[in-house]
Structure formats: structure tokens, C-alpha cells
Amino acid sequence: MPLLNAQPVQSTPLRLAVVGISHGHVGWILERKKPDVTLVGIYEPNKELGERNAKEHHLDPALFYTDLNKMLDAVKPEAVSVFGSIKNHLAAVEACAPRGIHVMVEKPLTFNNEDARQMQELANKNHIYLLTNYETSWYPTTEKTFQLVNDSNYVGPIRKVVFHHGHEGPKKIEVQPEFFQILTDPAQNGGGAIVDFGCYGANLMTYLMKDQEPLSVTAVTGHFQPAIYPKVDDEATIVVTYPKAQCIIQASWNWPFARKDMEVYGETGYIIATNNNNMRLRNTQTKGEQTLRVTTKEVTVYTDPFSYLADVVRGKIKVPHNGLYSLENNMKAVRILDAARESARTGKTITLKK
């Protein structure tokens, strides 16, 4: 989606509504008290779930609606944040885009190309922002890695990137029942670990490669806990090939602990971002490996996605064409993810046609 013309900068709070509350991370926005955003409405078709969250988060029951269109027309939000199943992202955009309401979905944008194309068309036709929120977009080490790779040429041309994303599994970390239900339903989530955590590497690699088109995708999935996850994979390895680089995405619900880290290897060095703040790096000009701690004092990065959304809508910032939240980036991420699911299903490498 081309960058929209910046609107006159406003200081009034962004009128934000929430679409769906079955996603386990919705508590962040329901508990949020910062003045840049005002929560004006919440759509949730499950009345019992809505009532439970109203009580748990001390919210006015009048904020809750069981009909999406009625909620949008009644409270007239400027933007919505979507916290339902991935499959329901399209329905949210179908309702919001014609009304000129901007949309931010939780990662990934969606899990198949057809839904992604429809969402892109709706966003472009109705001139709305359609953003995708990933936890790794808030990491100072993500931005620092990008700067080292693309601005200072610290590692030289990228040759291999390895991503490790995941945790012990939604059952072991005790996600909410509603969230567990959608995560383990292939119709709602598109798959298990391959979607839940495979999407991170697809998003980040597209960013690091500055929007370069991949050539092919090969994926293998595992089913190590069938008694817990009978319908979806819990282990996935995705190999994405580029003309002169390779990306390996290791997505798992079987790690002994939660992790989100990446290793970037170039012709002249490497960068290993072990978490949101810590890095190890080395190149041919340094004497051995160096450690680096990166915070928001060293790099400019939003650590709150709702602040990012508010500033985008208010015209305070523009979404970079290949930015981590951008529609352009996330269309490519979906393309990689969809090809990975097809490769795992067929046992074949999927060539991505231009």
C-alpha cells in the first residue's frame, strides 16, 4: 500500500475499538491507561467471554457489543485493534475499510494469499492503514540489527539468517482456553507452530532483505505432541532461498523455554540478537566477539504498538514501505507462510513466481 498523505497532526486521543478478545494478548489494550488512545468499544460475539473480561479488567459493560457492525456504527472509532482468530482478520477489514476505519491486526496479517489479497485491495481502495503487530517489532535489537546490516554494512552482504522463535507450547504455558482453541484449530489459525511462530522470521527476513523477493520455500513440520495438538503441527523448519542468501526459520512449541532470537551471517561478520536488548557481534575488523546492550536510548523504536498506531493515524509518522508493520512487508510474509504450509503438506519445494 502506498504511503498515505500525512494528516494534520492532532493531539486528541485516538478513538480505538477492539475487535475480538479471544487472543491471549488482548489484556494489554484492555488494561492500557496511556492518554494517546481512548478505548471506545469492544466487539466480542461470545457474551460470556465479554462479561468475564469486563469484570476482570474493570471495564464498563456498555463498551461491549456482540454485533461488529452495530459497534462500529455506534462508537465510530478511528481505528481498531483486532484480537480474534487469524481467519477473522479478513472479516474485520471487510467491516472497517468501507467505513474508513484503520486496522491493526495481531501477527500475522493472515495465513493465506487469497485473504491477504482481499485485505490489501480493501485497504488500498478505502485509503486506510492496515498494520500488523509483531512483538519483535518492538525490540531495540531488531532495529539495531537492521542498521548494522543495511546502514553501516557491518556484516557485508547477507548470506544466511537463522531465526529461533517459539516456546514450550500453548498448553504448557497455560494460555487462556479461548486462545488455546483458536491456536489449535487449523481453520482459524492456519496451522500450529508453523503459523504461530513461522511468521516472525518471514516478517523479519523481508525487512532485513529490504523487500527482496525470495525464490523458493521448503518446509518440514513435526507432530511431537499429538495428544495435545491432534489437528496442528507443533514443530516447523522453513528454508527460504534468495538469489544470494538463505533464511532458516525454526518455529517450535517444543523449546525448553521461550525464545525469540536471530543470527545474521554475512561475508564479513555476524550479528546474533539473543533477545530484545542483547547482541553478540563480530566482523573481520574486530578482535574477537563483542557484546552489545541496546535500548531505546540507542535506537528509535516504538515499544508500544498502540502508540505506533496512534502516531501513524495522527500523521506524526509515516509507515516505511518495507517497515515491519507495513502492508507491503506483510504481504510478502504471508506469501512465504502460505508457501511453507503448502511445502509441508506436499513434501515439495515451492517456487515463488514473480
From TrEMBL:
Parts forming coiled coils: none
Any Pfam family matching the protein: GFO_IDH_MocA_C3
Domain Gfo/Idh/MocA-like oxidoreductase N-terminal per the UniProt entry, residue ranges: 15-131
Gene Ontology MF term list: nucleotide binding
InterPro entries cross-referenced by the UniProt entry: Gfo/Idh/MocA-like_OxRdtase_N, Gfo/Idh/MocA_Oxidoreductases, GFO_IDH_MocA-like_dom, NAD(P)-bd_dom_sf
Origin: domain of life: Bacteria
The GFO/IDH/MocA-like oxidoreductase domain, residue ranges: 151-271
Protein's name in the database: Glucose-fructose oxidoreductase
Species this chain originates from: Segetibacter aerophilus
